[in-house]
Write a structure and sequence with these properties.
Layout (H helix, E strand, L loop, with lengths): L2 H7 L2 E9 L4 H15 L3 E9 L3 H4 L7 E3 L8 H9 L12 E4 L2 H6 L6 E6 L4 H4 L2 H8 L6 H25 L3 E4 L2 H11 L4 E2 L20 E4 L8 H10 L6 E4 L4 H14 L3 E5 L3 H10 L2 E3 L9 H8 L4 E4 L15 E4 L4 H13 L2 H4 L1 H6 L6 H16 L1
Helix pairs in contact: 2-17, 7-8, 10-11, 10-14
């Protein structure tokens, strides 16, 4: 990579995503991609239709230029998104050398820009391609009303929007996919050829010696229905080495109450930790006996990789999805038979009984290296340089 040349020309890239209001894996990807590009000498701006300023303190946006593009900014996320998509945005004033987008709505917002376009694809637009039951669950699985609105829109305009989505995908000069699993499905869906770029790990996510004086199972993500946390609680009820379950992430009151009731009925001890800062969450990753990831058909799953980086083995489903590209059965965790809750419980027990965390700690940490900042950034920047130069 000719870093000197890039720095002299100071090319600019705008990263764009619909909203920055949740503490999820995608938001972390955006931050780290922005830092990749800054380190390579690019001038970076992160654009969004809606910004919850609390996220700027919960996630490491330090040193990044983050701007909202709405001409009218209200406290209401769905309204801000609607106004932006209606055309009440300032996207015209941004004239970078390239846009790096992260969603179908982002692709729509930049559709008229005559610059290089790069799309990092985590999954297809759920509101356009999920079946009726899956879409209903998806719509109930986040804060605010944006997913419900999108689901309603798909009823009336689904055919048109699917055609538009495919057109916008093909208009990109470079497509990144977040896993082999995503690439296989979406290259076929869109009839494209994409490049795999795994979601990168924050370099601060690593094993630490700070002790939490209690044995526990840990799980971290947005705590929403489509992540299947009820499956995890039911699985723990089948365990012989039953341990408390600690969960980090945002959760709405109704789903929290549902999980608390289920746990109480099954006599499973659970604890909601809320949204944690990076330095806080790595303490839980490092001290957990095992990390349990119950989400089915996950496109990649950044949190299992974060757990591995902290030396803690992972239990996930052997369903061919993203986590299967991370877990080496019996070395850094186990893959359970889909979606057999007793087998999942047995795999957690096996992990504890075999003392994998103690015996294989170095191997567990080493297995996360391919997702490290350094390793992922090399190919990521190389591919972007090839497009922009």
């Amino acid at each position: 990579m000719d870093r000197k040349n890039i720095k002299n020309t100071k090319k600019r890239i705008c990263l764009i995503y619909d909203f920055l209001s949740e503490q999820g894996g995608l938001e972390r990807e955006i931050i780290i991609h922005a830092n990749f590009l800054k380190d390579a000498g690019y001038d970076i701006t992160v654009l969004t239709c809606h910004l919850d300023k609390k996220i700027l303190t919960l996630l490491p946006f330090d040193g990044l230029d983050v701007k909202t593009i709405g001409k009218i900014n209200t406290p209401f996320e769905s309204l801000n998104l609607f106004l932006c998509f209606l055309g009440l945005n300032n996207i015209k004033k941004y004239k970078p050398d390239a846009f790096l987008s992260y969603s179908f709505p982002s692709n729509f917002l930049i559709r008229k820009k005559k610059v290089k376009k790069i799309n990092y694809v985590n999954h297809f637009p759920h509101f356009l391609y999920l079946n009726k039951n899956e879409k209903a669950e998806w719509a109930d699985s986040t804060q605010g009303s944006k997913r419900k609105i999108a689901a309603v829109i798909s009823i009336f305009f689904g055919n048109y929007l699917r055609k538009l989505d495919k057109k916008l995908i093909k208009s990109n000069n470079l497509l990144f996919m977040n896993s082999n699993y995503t690439k296989r499905r979406l290259d076929k869906l869109y009839n494209v050829k994409s490049v795999i770029s795994y979601p990168p790990l924050d370099s601060r996510i690593k094993n630490v010696k700070k002790s939490i004086k209690k044995d526990f199972i840990f799980s971290s993500s947005r705590i929403i229905p489509d992540k299947k946390y009820e499956w995890l609680i039911e699985s723990i009820a089948y365990m012989k080495n039953k341990l408390p379950l600690f969960m980090a992430g945002s959760v709405n009151d109704s789903y929290k109450e549902k999980l608390e009731k289920l746990a109480s009925n099954l006599k499973v001890e659970i604890k909601f930790l809320g949204r944690l800062k990076t330095e806080e969450i790595r303490d839980y990753y490092s001290n957990a006996k095992v990390f349990a990831f119950p989400a089915p058909k996950e496109d990649f799953g950044l949190v299992p990789a974060e757990s591995l980086a902290c030396g803690t083995p992972v239990i996930a489903w052997n369903d061919g999805a993203g986590p299967t590209e991370q877990i080496i059965d019996g070395i850094n965790g186990y893959l359970a038979k889909p979606y057999d809750l007793k087998d999942y419980a047995g795999k957690i027990d096996k992990c504890l009984d075999n003392g994998i965390k103690i015996k294989n700690k170095k191997k567990i940490i080493d297995s996360s290296i391919k997702f490290s900042y350094k390793n992922v950034s090399k190919e990521f920047i190389k591919n972007i340089n090839n497009v922009i130069s």
